[in-house]
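Handout, section 3.2

Students often ask what a structure token actually looks like in practice. Rather than define it abstractly, here is a full record for Putative transcriptional regulator. The first block is the sequence as you would receive it.
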Amino acid sequence: MSKDEQRNPKAGDLLISEPFLQDENFVRSVVLLCEHSEEGSFGLIINKQSILKLGELVEELAFLDKAVFVGGPVEQNTLHFIYVGEKVLDGSLSLGDNIWWGGDYESLVEKLKLGLLDHDSVRFFLGYSGWGAEQLDDELSDETWIICREILNEQTFNLTPEQLWKSLLKNMGGEFKVIANYPLDPRLN
């Protein structure tokens, strides 16, 4: 990917944190970029699982024994979701090859209860990652993030949170394959 492409993110891209990022919210994180415009950017960290279960947070989804992910440090009192597969909810926005963000929440609950939507195809997030106007562009210029254009698919979606950061970098090859093996603390190398 050219340097120019590295600085032009779009919805559906994955943002991979550089290996030594010190912000505890984003250490070794992978963010699914859902929106990017002149006004700002919105994304969900897809590899940071919380200790909370969905049923503890949302009574109507108590039948799901499902971990909730930390979408980011912004508005952690909000619930967001993505799902993989065919579009089954009105209002869902496409983020690429059969990856969907949001949609009609009541319909989601109903489809999950009736078994019309596979529980494993949906991921829930508390909060989100947000950037103001040009903030993400500045962070990309500072090489805080690596843009990954690999399509998030069911195989990638099902990797454990611990595997995802390293696996994506390895799949990108070249210098990124080397970065994937960097230690958390370079002093320990």
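Discussion prompt for tutorial groups: Strands lie at 14-17, 30-37, 40-45, 49-53, 67-70, 74-84, 93-94, 99-101, 122-132, 145-148. How would you have guessed this from the sequence alone?
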